[in-house]
Amino acid sequence: MNNPDDPRTWIAKAESDLLNIRNNLGAEQVPWDTICFHAQQAAEKMLKAFVVSRGQTVSRTHNLEALLAEAVAGGGPLAALEADCRLLTPYAVMLRYPVAAGEPSEQEARQAVAAAERVYEGVQAALK
Questions:
Q1: Which residues of the chain have pLDDT under 70?
Q2: What is the pLDDT, as a whole number, of residue 100?
């Protein structure tokens, strides 16, 4: 059973998002919007893993900057991830439906993946 109070549960979910990204990057037709969405989700779940690891209650938000602030307030050496969180936050909701901004480009999606990987690695390092 998944335990939302166990950081490992959040990390496993983040790793599932990263696997989804890798699988989609290998597809014949790459869904760049889906990649951006899962990049945001991976980062969100890693930040929530850190918050939970400090015995804090996870906020019900997709705002990565707010989650990062909670993590930093909980003693996390993660402030350097602010730009990555700012980049990824909009992908939580805006890509679920057709929007005037259009679809992300391959370059934007690859930037999102790199940002998610930095958040993943940063949180992993902070948890050790």
A1: 1, 95-96, 98-101
A2: 61
For 7-127, the fitting CATH number among 1.20.120.330, 3.90.1150.10, 3.30.2290.10, 2.10.109.10 is: 1.20.120.330
Q: What is the pLDDT of residues 53-67, one digit of tens each?
A: 999 888 898 999 999
DSSP calls for the chain: ---TTSHHHHHHHHHHHHHHHHHHHTSSS--HHHHHHHHHHHHHHHHHHHHHHTTPPPPS---HHHHHHHHHHTT-S-GGGHHHHHHHGGGGTTTSS--TT-PPPHHHHHHHHHHHHHHHHHHHHHH-
d(CA 71, CA 118): 15
DSSP 100: T
Question: Counting Cβ atoms within 10 Å, is residue 89 exposed (0-12), middle (13-18) or buried (19+)?
Answer: buried
Note the pLDDT of residue 54: 93
